[in-house]
User: What shape does this take?
Amino acid sequence: MATTPAFNPPTRVLMGPGPSGANPRVIRAMAAPILGHLDPEFTRIMDNCRTMLRQVLRTENTLTLATPGTGTSGMEAAVMNLVEPGDKVVVGVAGYFADRICQMAERAGGVVTRVTAPWGSPVDPEQMRQAIRAAGKVKLVAVVHAETSTGVQTPVAPIAAIAHEAGALMLADCVTSLGGVPVEADGWGVDAIYSGTQKCLSAPPGLSPLTMSARAADAIRARETPCNSWYLDLGLLEAYWDDRRSYHHTAPISMIYALHEALALVLEEGLEERWARHERNGRALQLGLEAMGLVLHADEGYRLPVLTTVRIPEGVADAEVRGALLKRNSMEIGGGLGDLRGKVWRIGLMGESSTPGNVFLFLSSLAKILREQGYAADGRAALSAASARIAAG
Ligand SMILES: Cc1ncc(COP(=O)(O)O)c(C=O)c1O
Assistant: This one.
């Protein structure tokens, strides 16, 4: 008999920028029997996913589905379908992921204007307005709602209003926000949103929920050139997700099961209650970090509760701290990305991972490791600040 490699993934406390921990109900759903991708029982599950997705995204949009692939697939689907060669695109760039949108829009042949903001601040609506005016006849305006690289939240509604005044479509990346902080597709007047399963929805990575307004769907139908991506052509994808059930790809069956259960869990908890839980735990973590003596990186008033960036104190070894958390506590946090590499830690409290227990465990573990590194972290003050915030509800 052949000897095969051991397979023992450990249980981690996932407090990085994603993936987050998945609920056991989601994991169990993935062990359900595989159905054919056109089996009526399976397409009923797809329909339920669409209905629940609309509720979680707060939209009535017909064109609502999940693209096969991680969050980047939703980003690529949105950009490739909405941008044609020569189209003008204005993107608010205040972090790593907005730059990825620009790169994709350029690959689609778009003429891109980047409106930049420091990595730690939100995108400025007035600068967006000026750039949109200067560009003239803009087709698409895009921002990242929750920048996972910086921990900053950019309010989308004011920028959507500016885009619409100029006759442009509005796209928002809600990969890190959906299911954790308020996302109101229709309320904000956004034309396109994509997200990911592995952040605040707490399913494994592998699908990207996506919704498009009627205006965006019309713009896709009115394209002069076919979408540059065949796999992510929303016209073709929709013909599989709607009643036509026209074969396009073999759906990732078990991931659709996972999405189904993850969405059901969100709705059973209640969206408002879920947002409040993320807010409470996130603010408790941030108050705890400050009480410990550390400095939060993101601008006050725009800090995401689901992803906190904290500056690494002078003289503290980034990799050693993260390594010790992983080795001793089986706890993952993220290092800085792009411009913030080596400068900040990124601590996620998303979905299942957003618990008071994780906040306390992280704060006490970090304080101990920092003290070993020669930084006088006040662990007691951190825990008492965090528990006071949690007790306040
Ligand atoms: C804001 C944002 N957009 C897009 C992505 C890309 O998603 P994925 O890594 O699932 O492809 C991420 C991933 O972290 C993200 O945080």
Remarks:
- The chain has a mean pLDDT of 98.
